[in-house]
Inverse folding.
């Protein structure tokens, strides 16, 4: 079978879903373009900044589209291409998009606060503290891993490092031109894209060579600075320009697959049990961002909601961006689906998932006249751009979470709390811990649990939306059922992980798995208690 069939099915499904189920979701949520968003009512020109939809779309998509929608489908190819394809398409349309859209809108209606604050308002203070602690620790792990991955890429491909540094400088100039000089967006965007290409070319001419251990602190120092500055200085313009690179990649990849017409050689299905584990629940935590990811809810409620200029933008940014990420996951899946199973296993062992993706895209791009080396390098650059964008967004989110975790609910905060909730101090704490994990190699011990932890965040974000809608007297079934499924996935995955790590005498992972399981159970209990209270109020006529 031709890989074009998969691509066409996915494209038709995603476009149809956007105009049908996407419209259904926003109607159920009750989106009202006349309501002023927190970006206007709480504007501070640091975190709360009304932003034009194309610019915010660029930030949001670039932030959520990290490396996970690429690595997940490639690694899950061990089960065959069909299970991953079905999960990406169906899971993305009916679960992932619902998760992202609901998280974004719920945050907007809660003064652009994060999921932990939404849980506090609708479940209780205990729920807020538990979620904030869990999310903060998960974000530190993300910072450590992404800093390591990017540093490794920069050390191996110095030209990418130079291009990335030049690109940051370009983003600052772009933001200044747009927000301080009033330059027209269209003209400035065209110039920015041209200069972006120049950055790539200069990177090849003047590569910066540094060891991995030098790049890690440099990258985390950059992340701290970028997360402390107003969003219009680096975050918005960098992600907006970066989105053109990502959009260009998606378009080029789709055209290349249509032109090359690769034949699917991998079996549609291999086995319910592989070296990864059983298909349920492992497939659903391995393919995370390509179908649903808890990190998306942190971005939606952490940075995007503070910049949303109108509720009318919730659908294209929340629902639309997730569908674009699903498309990216399908493209990643095709880079392994055209391989024989034996070739897939050997190549994955030899060059890793990043190499499989880059080489697969490079092979496809040769069909439209792009040399193999150039196409492979372009795919590698896009991969690094995804990761770098996630790095500083995660740093800003880490700061928000620590503030929400430690701030005093009532009365004057103590001197220690006031110090920790300072945005600079909160940022330093996060990057310092991430640097320790990255340089010591400690992240390797915890990373196997990331898939379950990330999907648990998604389940809890859906849980917060379910309770909020119930308290508002709105139909919440479109959020409730995805929440039940994701809780089943994550709780089962944590049990499997616990049994596996206990057998391997890995005490650290075993303890973390138990803690995550207990956390989920406690939060579910608190949510059920609140839902019962809501039901009693309705029965009493309140």
């Amino acid at each position: 079978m031709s890989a074009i069939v998969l691509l066409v099915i996915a494209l038709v499904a995603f476009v149809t879903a956007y105009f049908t189920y996407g419209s259904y979701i926003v109607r159920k949520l009750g989106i009202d373009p006349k309501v002023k968003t927190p970006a206007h009512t709480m504007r501070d020109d640091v975190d709360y900044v009304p932003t034009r939809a194309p610019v915010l779309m660029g930030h949001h998509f670039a932030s959520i589209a990290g490396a996970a929608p690429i690595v997940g489908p490639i690694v899950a190819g061990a089960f065959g291409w069909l299970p991953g394809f079905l999960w990406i398409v169906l899971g993305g349309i009916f679960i992932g998009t619902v998760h992202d859209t609901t998280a974004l809108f719920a945050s907007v209606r809660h003064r652009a606060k994060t999921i932990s604050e939404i849980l506090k308002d609708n479940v209780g203070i205990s729920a807020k503290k538990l979620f904030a602690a869990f999310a903060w620790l998960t974000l530190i792990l993300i910072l450590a891993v992404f800093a390591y991955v990017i540093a490794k890429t920069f050390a191996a491909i110095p030209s990418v490092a130079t291009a990335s540094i030049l690109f940051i400088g370009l983003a600052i100039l772009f933001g200044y031109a747009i927000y301080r000089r009033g330059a027209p967006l269209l003209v400035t965007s065209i110039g920015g894209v041209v200069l972006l290409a120049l950055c790539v070319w200069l990177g090849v001419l003047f590569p910066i060579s540094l060891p991995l251990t030098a790049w890690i602190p440099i990258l985390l120092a950059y992340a701290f600075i970028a997360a402390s500055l107003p969003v219009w200085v680096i975050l918005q313009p960098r992600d907006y320009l970066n989105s053109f690179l990502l959009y260009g990649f998606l378009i080029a990849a789709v055209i290349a697959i249509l032109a090359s017409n690769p034949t699917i050689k991998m079996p549609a299905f291999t086995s319910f049990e592989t070296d990864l584990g059983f298909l349920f629940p492992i497939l659903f935590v391995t393919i995370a961002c390509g179908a649903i990811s808890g990190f998306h809810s942190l971005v939606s409620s952490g940075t995007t909601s503070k910049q949303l200029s109108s509720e009318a933008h919730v659908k294209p940014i929340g629902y639309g961006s997730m569908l674009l990420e699903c498309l990216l996951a399908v493209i990643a899946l095709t880079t392994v689906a055209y391989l024989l199973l034996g070739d897939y296993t050997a190549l994955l062992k030899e060059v890793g998932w990043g190499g499989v993706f880059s080489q697969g895209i490079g092979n496809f791009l040769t069909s439209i006249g792009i040399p193999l080396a150039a196409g492979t390098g372009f795919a590698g650059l896009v991969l690094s751009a995804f990761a770098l964008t996630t790095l500083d967004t995660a740093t800003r989110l880490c700061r928000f979470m620590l503030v929400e975790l430690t701030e005093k609910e009532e009365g004057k905060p103590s001197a220690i709390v006031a110090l920790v909730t300072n945005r600079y101090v909160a940022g330093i704490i996060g990057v310092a811990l991430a640097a320790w994990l990255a340089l010591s190699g400690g992240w390797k011990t915890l990373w196997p649990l990331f898939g379950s932890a990330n999907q648990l965040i998604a389940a809890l974000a859906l849980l917060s939306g379910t309770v909020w809608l119930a308290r508002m007297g709105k139909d919440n079934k479109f959020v409730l059922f995805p929440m039940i499924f994701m809780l089943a996935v994550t709780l089962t995955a944590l049990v499997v992980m616990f049994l596996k790590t206990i057998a391997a005498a890995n005490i650290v992972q075993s303890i973390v798995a138990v803690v995550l399981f207990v956390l989920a159970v406690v939060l579910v209990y608190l949510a059920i208690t609140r839902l019962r209270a809501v039901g009693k109020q309705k029965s009493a006529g309140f």
Summary: DSSP finds 23 helices and two strands in the chain. The chain has one domain: 3-539.
